[in-house]
Amino acid sequence: MQQDDAYFPNPDANVRIDLIARIEASFSQQIPSGKRIAGWLLNNLAQIPFESADSIAGYTGTTGITVGRYLRKLGYRNLEDVKASLSAGPLPPLGRYRPAGCLAAAHPLESSQPLSASGG
Question: Is this prediction's pTM over 0.70?
Answer without folding.
Answer: no
